[in-house]
Write a structure and sequence with these properties.
Elements (H helix, E strand, L loop, with lengths): L1 H12 L3 H17 L3 H28 L20 H7 L3 H4 L3 E5 L6 H14 L4 E5 H13 L3 H9 L3 E7 L6 H14 L4 E6 L6 H5 L2 H13 L1 E5 L5 H8 L7 H7 L2
Helix pairs in contact: 1-2, 2-3, 3-6, 7-8, 7-9, 9-11
């Protein structure tokens, strides 16, 4: 028992906290399975490595400011047949990041754009890439405030340093000239240096309205689309589907009468 306690304290001193925690149970398992000393040591170290990786991933996910935790395996591709699942699985390999390629998800509200963006972000974190998530509105508010306080360059680093920047919900609110210019600066700063995953409910033809200026919209699109993958999603809203399943949308009287004939 003295040796066991001394070993546990030594593991804790070395920072091997998980190994110290599971030492007793792993010793019992090793005895039951008649493991060699080397196999026991490998088993104990594997427990420590797994715990460290889990802590690392949790920390990186927290720093990424992801709004929720949804993976590709949780995405219902059968509900959105307009999406090429093979294309999305290929994006999940993160090869697009090596070329600083951008990924743009376009489609109406509720079709899964943010889910896919977050799922790709999680894949990036799994592969050790820096990821940061922000809504377009929060991004512009932050940059505008920094611009007014003469600290824009320093604040831009928050959005230029991650290998993957996820900008969600572009197009729900129009921008003024200052915000459009700030967004252009960000896109230009990341151009060929890092990937942007962007979601928007507007087609490219409407981006002039978003930015209030077709010239700056064209300049932004030129940089975003130079190296890009565009995924157009056409389909029903997941949220509306769930409400229909819950019976929250009753058929209209007109529909009811027509169905009687």
């Amino acid at each position: 028992m003295v040796v066991l306690e001394h070993t546990r304290q030594a593991l804790e001193t070395l920072g091997l906290t998980q190994a110290a925690t599971v030492l007793d149970s792993r010793l019992e398992a090793a005895a039951a399975r008649q493991l060699t000393y080397l196999d026991f040591l490998a088993d104990l170290l594997e427990a420590e490595l797994l715990a460290r990786r889990e802590r690392y991933l949790k920390a990186r996910i927290r720093l990424a400011h992801l709004p929720f935790h949804k993976t590709l395996d949780q995405f219902d591709f059968s509900f959105q047949p307009s999406i090429d699942e093979r294309q999305i699985r290929e994006l999940a390999t993160m090869t697009f990041v090596a070329n600083a390629t951008n990924v743009l998800f376009l489609g109406p509200p509720g079709v899964g754009k943010t889910h896919l963006a977050v799922a790709l972000g999680l894949q990036g974190i799994e592969q050790g890439l820096g990821v940061y998530f922000v809504t377009a509105h929060a991004l512009l508010q932050d940059l505008r405030r920094a611009h007014g306080e003469n600290r824009l360059e320093r604040r831009l680093r928050v959005y230029t340093s991650p290998r993957i920047l996820i900008v969600d919900e572009l197009g729900y609110l129009s921008m003024d000239s200052v915000e459009a210019t700030l967004f252009f600066q960000l896109v230009s700063a990341r151009y060929t240096r890092g990937s942007i995953i962007l979601t928007s409910n507007k087609s490219f033809g409407d981006w002039g309205q978003i930015f209030g200026d077709t010239v700056i919209a064209t300049a932004i699109l030129d940089r975003l689309l130079h190296h890009s993958v565009v995924v157009n999603i056409r389909g029903e809203s997941y949220r509306l589907r769930e409400k229909k399943r819950a019976g929250l949308f009753a058929p209209s009287p007109t529909a009811s009468r027509s169905s009687d004939h």
